[in-house]
Amino acid sequence: MKSETRTDKQTQGRLPGGIPALSSIRIIRSSRRTLSLQVRPDGEVLVRAPRRATLQDIESFVRKNEGWLRRHLEMVEKEQAAAAASPVEKLTMEEIRDLADRALRVIPERVAHFAPLVGVTYGRITIRNQRTRWGSCSSRGNLNFNCLLMLVPPKVLDYVVVHELCHRKEMNHSPRFWAEVERIIPDFKTYEKWLKTEGGRIMRRMTG
Fold it and tell me: DSSP assignment of 129-140, as one string?
């Protein structure tokens, strides 16, 4: 496990266009080799950086990803506004455990069904309790899925499974990646749109 070391968080500030200034971004340094950017559900911006990365390196990275950052900050603002306008009933820990148990029975079967169609192998399947991601695929082929997928329509679940399996061929969201998704699920955009419009409300039910 990589150990994360120094965490820096300074005063709030914004650059033109609403992008956070470097002084308002929390920087987490570790033994990792690359920089990564994250927007938390509360709007906090994190940069995970190598220990040797300079502040100039980090600022350049943030500016390079300004468009991505702006889009995700706008998404957070919309989700926060929606949450305030339409409160949801939080799941109990017992309900979350039940969802996780169901996911452990259902999702591996769907992965086993679609993997040969995509033409890939995969490693370990893990079920997580998350508020920001439906699934992920590691470079080693390990797959992670959100237990909240038990609350979405079956075809949406299948789309998420195929999405992550296609990352076994393309670890990005390039045109080639989307072409692979479309090959398996021709109407995938319908399910992607469902997640964008309805998924936020489900995510907000997660406790914690």
Answer: --SS-SEEE-TT
How many angstroms separate the CA atoms of 28 and 36, rounded?
Answer: 10
- Cα–Cα dist 146/203, whole Å: 10
Q: Indicate the SS3 state at residue 159.
A: helix
Q: Which tokens sit at 191?
A: 């399910």
Q: What pLDDT is recorded for position 13?
A: 42
Token pair for 112: 């086993």
Return the closest-CA partner of residue 163 out of 186, 141, 136, 142. 136
Is 41's pLDDT higher than 80? no
**Rounded Cα gap, residues 193 and 199, in angstroms:** 9
pLDDT tens digits, 130-148: 878 899 999 899 999 999 9
